[in-house]
Amino acid sequence: MKIAFKVFIISCLITIKSLYKWLESKFSLRGKFIVAIGAIISVSYMIFLYRISTVDNELILLQAQQQARMLHNQILITRQWVSEHNGLFVIKKEGVKSNPFLDLPVIRDQSGTEYMMRNPAMVTRELSEYSTQKGLGSFRVTSLKPINPANVPDDYERQCMINFEKGTLESIDISDSPQGRVVRYMAPLDVKDSCLGCHARHGYVKGDIRGALSITIPIAWADAKIKANNRSLFFIGLVSFILVSITLLIMFNTLVVNRVNRLSAAMNSFPEVEPDQLTLPTGDDEIGNLSEHFSQLCERLTQSQRELDKTRQQAWLNEKMASLGILSAGIAHEVNNPLGGMLNCVKAMRECPDDHEMRERYLPLLDKGLKRIEHTMRQLLNFGRQEPLQLRKIDVGILLGECLELLSYKLKDISIKQDNSLKEHYYVDAEALKQVIVNLGLNAIQAMPDGGILTIGSEVIDSEIRLTFRDTGMGIAKNTLTHIFDPFFTTKDVGIGTGLGLSVTYSLVTQMKGSIEVESELGVGTTVTVTFPAQTEKLRAES
Description:
This protein has 543 residues and is of the alpha+beta class. It folds into three domains: 2-84 and 119-225, 2-Layer Sandwich (Beta-Lactamase); 283-386; 389-543, 2-Layer Sandwich (Heat Shock Protein 90). It is 55% helix and 17% strand. It contains twelve helices and 14 strands. It has helices at 2-26, 29-84, 120-133, 155-165, 196-199, 220-269, 286-351, 356-384, 396-407, 430-446, 478-481, 501-511; strands at 88-91, 106-108, 114-118, 138-142, 171-177, 180-190, 209-218, 392-394, 414-420, 426-428, 452-461, 464-471, 515-521, 525-533. The strands form four sheets. The chain has a five-stranded mixed sheet with strand order 9-11-12-14-13, with helices on one face. Helix 1 runs antiparallel to helix 2 (29-84), helix 2 (29-84) runs antiparallel to helix 6 (220-269) and helix 10 packs antiparallel against helix 12. The chain is rod-shaped.
């Protein structure tokens, strides 16, 4: 029984482990929880039911064995009383047979009434008949040397009596019968002084084992009770399992699933929805604490994003101002040249105020020089103006030309080739695109200190605008390519670059939902390709 129980427990554990692996790949969290709890409850209740049935069976057997021992003692007492009184005499009635194995089976009194003698063996047999009729069991005397053929032992009784002769005190066994299970109990019958009157002639002496008392106790009624009890427990367990499953499902949906879904929805809506507007689950349990921590995390992320945006804008402005300073150095020459000529004209006109011919010749020159300076300054102001990032429908080709005009002031022994195939107007962030073009153009110019060719192409491929900057400069080493977009990383000499140009450019292109790729070879040149969506219809502005 213990071995079977251990095997049952091990089988249950293996089943639970297999069930857990199956649940991991087949069910949602709710399904896993309900099925796992249901399986644990079912297995636990089956173990409980098995144990209750086993205990009931053991108690019934113990009770039947104790009942058999008590009945054995009662029969012995009855037989001893009959034996000590030299038997019993009962009035002869119809249907009551005499014992043919007695020396004096029948006696008659003076009135002619006949009495039949009853010895212990016959009293035992007749009491057994009464007990059998009442359904209380049966008992009989048997012997390896029976006098009465009715006392011949069966196989079980014969083996028990052989064991009694070897010193066994009693024997108990559970066997099946047509009416159900029975408990069989046997104990030896010793020859006592009161028994010698009848059995001395058979060769027995005091202390010999002349036979055994065989008792049969039916326990089919107990088995029926156990089965009925098991059915009741199984029904109660089934109802309990259903109620517990429904309760667990409702509680899990209310306390876990619905709240987790709300938390998941809040996570999906962040950062579009501000942290203070998120609908989060509340409570003092683990999910409530997780929700509170998520809210705090959102607030920290929002604050960090604001600071990052502020830092990014400042870095963009700083880089723009640095680019503006670099451009100003080149533009200064373009401004100083017309200023010098204009000063000479003014000086000459001041020295000859009455020379109308000189005035008519110099005034157009002064006007042309002033307009040239105004145009140059307007370009610088437009490039240096700080505006919020926003999408506007512009001609990207014209914007590219304006940026190249600014870059032209820095050209020295460098020629620019432009291949512009953009024909439509697109929604782009003009200021961000200006910064990208100028940054990449300045990098290309600075990479060609001894002169070269800067080729700039623009085209639309698969609904994307592609800008290509190709120079014939020094190129970039392969081990450096992976760091060129890192902030403050620069290969230029001190004072020439800030190390933020390409980092800001990468950030701006990313904001424009685009990408930037760099290919370079030392001594050959570098090609930078910028790609971003070609929007012909206005979408939601993003900054």
